[in-house]
Specification:
With about 210 residues, the protein is of the alpha+beta class. Helix content is about 40%, strand content about 20%. It has three helices and ten strands. The protein has helices at about 40-55, 135-140, 145-210; strands at about 1-5, 10, 20, 35, 55-65, 70-80, 90, 90-95, 110-115, 120-125. It has an eight-stranded mixed sheet with strand order 3-2-1-4-10-9-6-5. Strand 9 (about 110-115) and strand 10 (about 120-125) form a beta hairpin.
Length: about 210
């Protein structure tokens, strides 16, 4: 099964049939071997799954290529993953601690870029160690400031990527135009050089006959 990142609301099965994911009440559970067209498609799917189940997705660690820095694998989990570490000074807490949403939850999926060009789930941990909030609206309200900031930055990053792609296209078009112009200029210069050589040859021949 592969999730279409462009359509967003459709899942294509191995038989070619399309299933509605986001516009129905059906919750499609992740499974090991499930494939996506991109990392963003995997995030969108797991985020939708999280909202329907009653928890908030957290974008977690990733593994990058040592050669070009591209992301090769990503871990997506619950926002209650891990534990809040209190910062203490010599005489007690430095500041009044905020209520923590971290409860050490292990629920997550691990997606990895496959040779086929798909992002494939290689690990799925289903169970949560805390009650799930049924209402998606309530689930969104349980996000701490870090989760909100991550979502804002993720959205901003997507916009920047689209902008960079547009700039890249414009730059490529400009470079192509410069290259064509340079080629034409080179031909003109070569013609001038050839004409000068021909003129010098005629001049030498004339001097020889005198």
């Amino acid at each position: 099964m592969a999730v279409d990142s462009d359509e967003g609301a459709r899942v294509e099965s191995s038989t070619g049939a399309e299933l509605v994911v986001y516009e129905s009440d059906t919750i499609i559970e992740p499974y090991e071997g499930m494939g996506f067209d991109s990392e963003d498609a995997a995030k969108i799917f797991y985020d939708d799954y999280a909202r329907r189940l009653g928890f908030v997705m957290r974008v977690m660690s990733c593994r990058r290529s040592e050669r070009d820095g591209k992301i090769l694998a990503r871990r997506l989990g619950c926002n209650k993953e891990g534990h809040c570490v209190s910062i203490r000074g010599k005489f007690g807490p430095v500041r009044k601690p905020r209520p923590s949403t971290r409860e050490g939850c292990k629920a997550m999926i691990h997606v990895k870029y496959d040779k086929s060009g798909k992002w494939v789930i290689t690990k799925f941990v289903k169970d949560h160690n805390h009650p799930l909030v049924v209402s998606p609206r309530e689930a969104r309200q349980t996000m701490d400031e870090k989760d909100k900031k991550i979502q804002e930055l993720t959205a901003e990053l997507r916009n920047k990527k689209r902008l960079c792609a547009t700039y890249q296209e414009q730059l490529n078009a400009f470079l192509k135009m410069v290259e064509e112009h340079s080629e034409q200029l080179s031909k003109k210069v070569q013609n001038v050089v050839d004409n000068l050589k021909e003129f010098e040859s005629l001049e030498q021949e004339l001097l020889h006959h005198r």
